[in-house]
Automatic annotation (TrEMBL):
Name this protein carries in UniProt: Aromatic amino acid beta-eliminating lyase/threonine aldolase domain-containing protein
Source species of the chain: marine sediment metagenome
One GO location term (cellular component): cytosol
One Pfam family here: Beta_elim_lyase
Family per record: Belongs to the threonine aldolase family.
Amino acid sequence: MKVVDFRSDTVTKPSPEMWEIVKSMDDSKLGDDVEQEDPTVNELELKAAKLVGKEAALYVTSGTQGNLVSLLSQTKPGDQILVEKLSHIFGHEVGSAARIGGLMVYAYPSNKGVPDLDNLEEMIGDPEDVHESATTLLCAENTHNFYGGIIIKPDDLQKMKIFADKKNMKLHIDGARIFNAAVALNIPVTELTQYGDSIMFCLSKGLSCPVGSIIAGSSEFIKRARKFRKMLGGGMRQAGIIACFGVAALESNWINRLKEDHINAKILTEGMRTYNLPIKVQIPETNIFFVDFPKEAPMEKIMAELYENGIKVFSFDHKIRFVTHYGINEDDIQYSIETIKKVLQKFF
C-alpha cells in the first residue's frame, strides 16, 4: 500500500546530494565545536549568517532549543515577553520560557499572526511602575504554523520592529519556515529577516536535514547565545558530521526547491475542493493548509480510515492539517486526492 505522510515536513529525509557530502567527510572536516574548532560547523554558521543578513549565527539542536536560547539571550528572569497566542513558543515548547527562563509570558491575539499594535501597547509593562516588570521582547512566527503556513509580510514585520524599538523591546522571529515565506513571496529572505534582532530557522523541516536549526543575530547576541546553548546541553563536539547536511541545504537551488512543495499543496487543495462535501479547504500560501470539518464529523473514525488507506495526517479538534514536503511528488498528490475522496465519502 502506498503511504503519503502529510503529518509534517519534519518527516523529511536527506537528498542524494546531502548524502554525497556525508560520504566525502573525513577527520579533517571535524573538530570540537564547543571550542569553535569544527570547520564544517563554522562553515555552516558563516553561510547561514550571510544568507539571512546577520553578523553571526549559531548551530543548535532544534527549533525549540533555538527559540529558547534566543529568548534567554535577550531577556533576564522576571521580564515580560509577548508571544502570539497560537505560536509554537507559547503552546508547543513545554513552557520553557517560564520554567527555564523565569519569564512572564503574555499571549497576544492577532490577525493570522499580525498583532493590533494598539492592543499590544496595552499589554506592555510600565517601566516606571515599581510594581511591574519590564517588557523586553516581542516574538513573531513566520510562516505561522497554526494559521496554515500563513506569511507575515515584510511591511507587517517592519511595523512590529518599529513598535518594538519605540518600546525598548527586541524582536525575535521564529522563522522555522522562513524560507517557505521568502520563496512564496519571491523575495530574498533578508527582506524578512532584516527586522528581527534575532532569527531562528529550521534545517530539519522543508530543507530536509536530519537534525538542527540555526539562530542568527548580532555578534554580541551570538556570544551570549553560545553560553546559553551550553547551559541547555546543546554544546556538541564533532558536530560537523550532522552540520554538513545544513551546508548542502543552504544552497540556493535547494531552497528554491520549496516551490515544489507549495505547488503540490495548491494542487492538493484544488482537488479537495471538487469533492462537493461539507468541508472547508484552506487556500495555501505555502506548504501547509487546514481542512475544517463539521462539528458532528466523527474525526477519530475519519483519521483511522485515512491511516488505513495510507494517508498520514494530524488532526486538531475538527481540523486536519496537511503539510507538503520533500519526498511527496505529484503522483503522490494525485493518489491522495482520489484516496481522501473515497474515505470522506464514507462519512458524508
